[in-house]
């Protein structure tokens, strides 16, 4: 009788409300920009488009980066401001991660390479692409999800915490 | 600035940047509410200790999917840019697979992704700057390597 309840508790120890609500808001933010502009806003193109301010490499000076770099900065500032406003309102601004800096830095390098090579990240492929029913995006998400699960499990098995 | 003349027409609409900012802010609130701004929560998902994060991408892609689908079918154009509503479709090639794999290693190691990292900075998690610096470095490295590969390829063809 209680077994299904115990299973749900084990799989979702924090419940699902905040996850579902957060996901709907992420979708809503994307939809607001899309409704006004027709643009599918992803978060990782910002990395290359912002590099175009500082680097003369032809790769970063392509029109698609230069023409979108200003609004991508504004989009990113909006993300920072929205998250800041929410955490300040809740009184938990200033939380810091325990995950070790080397993991963030090395992980960051791989994320910078992988998302740009693979044409998108968790928002571009994961939200906009999957929402579009794009086979390219679904394949990309399937791969990064499986690989990330494998790596995170290995890291845990190797006893690297946090 | 070499790029100063290449400002897209749509950016000239006075409401364009305010709308992008508001959309970004709602997106950022969502990342904070969903706890994705905390690498620990993402790692717990990937390690099967709390599967709740599935509802984040699931919820977001359903909201986005319904909107993209309905507006694409409507055949209309966006009011601020005149851009025709469409779906996000990218071409398929080997880079999509390799890039997804490399991104997956980084995500599994760190528990961060680009949007969530920006939001993490917003909640005051300054340590995330190690990750953001890494992302810029990685994006620069791939651009540098791909450009030199293209140029050596072009030189080889010219010979």
From TrEMBL, chain A:
Membrane topology according to the record: Multi-pass membrane protein
InterPro entries registered for this protein in UniProt: Sulf_transp_TsuA/YedE
Location in or out of the cell: Cell inner membrane
Keyword DNA-binding (UniProt): no
Transmembrane segments: 20-51, 71-89, 101-118, 138-160
Pfam families on file: Sulf_transp
One GO CC term, this protein: plasma membrane
The keyword Cell membrane is assigned to this record: yes
Keywords from the named record: Cell inner membrane, Cell membrane, Membrane, Transmembrane, Transmembrane helix, Transport
PANTHER family according to UniProt: INNER MEMBRANE PROTEIN YEDE, SULPHUR TRANSPORT DOMAIN-CONTAINING PROTEIN
Record-given protein name: Putative membrane protein YedE/YeeE
Native source organism of the sequence: Halorubrum alkaliphilum
Taxonomic placement: Archaea, Methanobacteriati, Methanobacteriota, Stenosarchaea group, Halobacteria
TrEMBL record, chain B:
Family annotation (InterPro entries): DUF6691
Keyword Disulfide bond listed: no
Annotated coiled-coil segments of the chain: none
TM region positions: 15-33, 53-75, 96-117, 123-141
Pfam families: DUF6691
Keywords: Membrane, Transmembrane, Transmembrane helix
Stated name of the protein: Putative membrane protein YedE/YeeE
């Amino acid at each position: 009788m209680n077994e299904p309840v115990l299973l749900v508790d084990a799989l979702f120890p924090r419940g699902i409300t905040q996850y579902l609500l957060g996901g709907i808001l992420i979708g809503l933010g994307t939809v607001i920009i899309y409704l006004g502009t027709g643009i599918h806003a992803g978060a990782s193109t910002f990395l290359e488009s912002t590099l175009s301010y500082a680097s003369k490499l032809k790769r970063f000076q392509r029109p698609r980066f230069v023409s979108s770099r200003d609004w991508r900065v504004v989009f990113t500032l909006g993300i920072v401001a929205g998250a800041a406003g929410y955490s300040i309102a809740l009184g938990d601004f200033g939380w810091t991660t325990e995950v070790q800096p080397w993991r963030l830095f090395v992980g960051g390098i791989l994320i910078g390479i992988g998302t740009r090579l693979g044409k998108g990240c968790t928002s571009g492929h994961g939200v906009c692409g999957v929402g579009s029913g794009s086979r390219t995006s679904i394949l990309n998400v399937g791969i990064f999800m499986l690989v990330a699960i494998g790596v995170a499990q290995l890291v845990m098995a190797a006893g690297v915490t946090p | 600035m070499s790029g100063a003349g290449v400002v897209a027409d749509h950016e000239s609409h006075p409401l364009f940047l305010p709308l992008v900012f508001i959309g970004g802010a709602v997106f950022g609130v969502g990342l904070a509410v969903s706890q994705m701004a905390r690498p620990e929560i993402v790692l717990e998902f990937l390690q099967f200790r709390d599967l709740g994060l599935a509802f984040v991408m699931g919820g977001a892609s359903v909201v986005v999917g319904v909107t993209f689908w309905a507006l694409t079918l409507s055949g209309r154009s966006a009011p601020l840019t005149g851009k025709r509503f469409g779906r996000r479709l990218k071409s398929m090639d080997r880079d999509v697979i390799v890039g997804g794999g490399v991104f997956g290693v980084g995500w599994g190691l760190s528990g961060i992704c680009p949007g969530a990292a920006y939001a993490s900075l917003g909640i005051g998690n300054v340590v995330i700057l190690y990750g953001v610096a890494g992302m810029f470095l990685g994006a620069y490295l791939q651009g540098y390597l791909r450009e030199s590969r293209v140029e050596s390829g072009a030189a080889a063809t010219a010979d």
